[in-house]
């Protein structure tokens, strides 16, 4: 299945992420006879079967088009049905590299929630690793289990469990031998003491606790210290988009020249009207001159000036994009060294 392996052609039953626009990506399971409906038109699933992932398809009258994308954890995060708050790719990608998660890693995750991060973990540890994920809400557990099965996450075992009360032990497995722990729970400090017998002893273990409130962070840090975790660090990811532009320098002399120019144009227009002529049509004196040719910088409307164009004075300015999603939670990282260096 595409979350773990790549696939070239779309087949009946495949999950396809239909890209309608930058903000609309819809997951569908391809089923012969069904249609995917958008405001641009209806796309029969039959027309998708046999196409390569990434193909563009159009409606019969070419009124609209969509792209049929291969699922990836990042696209799934953008399109999945939300049952809870989710971890977005800005955080998950940072956490994965910070915890050094790789093919073959063994991961414990709680809670599973909507399974957003689960897909990223599953893809990263791949077929050689294991992911043990825990969720105590029954409906969310059932839904996630069904999705993981459909998505072929065969390295993932989901367990219906309150990990704060009953820990991480799985029947038939002595120790989960995990080297990576991710806790996205309201009270990670109640779950951390249960990790003792489930983490690897022959290699470094990393943990990340994802908490929106600072009070949670304080309790988590105390608990990690008491349980012998070291290198405890708090970080947060802040997404910022900086746009840099050039802005035209404006001075008073230019403003005065501009006002005189506008007044002169008005006067010419009024004269044409008095003479019974159309001021726009008949005053067709578009000489191709730009404002700079008249000796001033254009304020407001004028002939089109390209940003940074020679003949004008420009400032370099930087603007912050306010729409970008930024801090979501605090990330507390810590680690344990392999025994015998381990404190406990
Ligand atoms: N990380 C998930 C994602 O990316 O989709 C979202 C996790 S959601 C914010 C937190 C989940 O933890 C909820 O689904 C909740 O039911 C579950 N949860 C809370 N306390 C729990 C506990 N003690 N044991 C297991 N699951 C728990």
Topology:
Elements: E1 15-21, E2 24-29, E3 35-38, E4 41-44, E5 56-58, E6 65-69, H1 73-79, H2 89-98, E7 106-110, H3 116-125, E8 130-135, H4 138-150, E9 156-160, H5 163-166, E10 180-183, H6 188-191, E11 205-211, H7 214-226, E12 230-235, E13 241-248, H8 252-274, H9 279-282, H10 291-294, E14 314-321, E15 330-336
Parallel strand pairs: 7-8, 7-10, 8-9, 10-11
Antiparallel strand pairs: 1-2, 1-6, 3-4, 5-6, 11-15, 12-15, 13-14
Helix pairs in contact: 1-3, 2-3
The structure holds S-adenosylmethionine.
Family: Belongs to the class I-like SAM-binding methyltransferase superfamily. TRM61 family.
GO molecular function: tRNA (adenine(58)-N1)-methyltransferase activity
EC number: 2.1.1.220
Trace the largest sheet across and list its strands.
9-8-7-10-11-15-12
- Looking at how many chains there are and whether they match, the oligomeric state comes to single chain
Radius of gyration: 30 Å
Shape: elongated
Portion in helices: 25-40%
Order of helices and strands: EEEEEEHHEHEHEHEHEHEEHHHEE
Report the sheet with the most strands, covering strand number, pairing sense and barrel closure. 7 strands, mixed
Number of strands: 15
Bound molecules: S-adenosylmethionine
Catalytic activity: adenosine(58) in tRNA + S-adenosyl-L-methionine = N(1)-methyladenosine(58) in tRNA + S-adenosyl-L-homocysteine + H(+)
Main location: nucleus
Family: Belongs to the class I-like SAM-binding methyltransferase superfamily. TRM61 family.
EC number: 2.1.1.220
């Amino acid at each position: 299945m595409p979350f773990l392996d790549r696939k070239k052609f779309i087949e009946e039953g495949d999950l396809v992420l239909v890209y309608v626009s930058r903000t609309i990506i819809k997951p569908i399971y391809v089923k012969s006879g069904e249609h995917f409906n958008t405001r641009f038109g209806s796309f029969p699933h039959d027309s998708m079967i046999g196409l390569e992932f990434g193909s563009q398809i159009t409606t019969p009258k070419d009124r609209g088009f969509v792209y049929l994308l291969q699922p990836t954890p990042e696209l799934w995060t953008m399109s999945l049905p939300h049952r809870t708050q989710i971890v977005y790719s800005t955080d998950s990608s940072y956490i994965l590299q910070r915890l050094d998660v790789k093919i073959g890693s063994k991961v414990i995750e709680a809670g599973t929630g909507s399974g957003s991060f689960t897909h990223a973990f599953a893809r990263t540890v791949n077929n050689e690793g294991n992911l043990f994920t825990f969720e105590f809400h029954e409906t969310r557990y059932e839904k996630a289990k069904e999705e993981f099965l459909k998505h072929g996450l065969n390295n993932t075992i989901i367990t219906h469990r309150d990990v704060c009360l009953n820990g991480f032990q799985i029947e038939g497995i002595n120790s989960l031998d995990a080297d990576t722990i991710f806790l996205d729970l309201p009270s990670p400090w109640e779950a951390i003491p249960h990790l003792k017998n489930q983490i690897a002893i022959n290699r470094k273990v990393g943990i990340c606790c994802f908490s929106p409130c600072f009070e949670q962070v304080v309790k988590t840090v105390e608990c990690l210290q008491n349980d012998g975790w070291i290198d405890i660090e708090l970080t947060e990811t802040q997404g910022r988009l900086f746009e840099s532009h050039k802005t035209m320098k404006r001075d008073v002399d230019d403003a005065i020249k501009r006002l005189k120019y506008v007044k002169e144009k008005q006067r010419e227009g009024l004269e044409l009207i008095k003479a019974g002529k159309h001021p726009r049509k008949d005053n067709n004196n578009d000489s191709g001159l730009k404002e700079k040719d008249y000796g001033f910088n254009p304020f407001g409307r004028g002939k089109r000036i390209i940003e940074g164009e020679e003949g004008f004075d420009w400032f370099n300015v930087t603007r912050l994009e306010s729409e970008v999603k930024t801090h979501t939670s605090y990330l507390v990282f810590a680690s344990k060294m392999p025994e015998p260096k381990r404190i406990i």
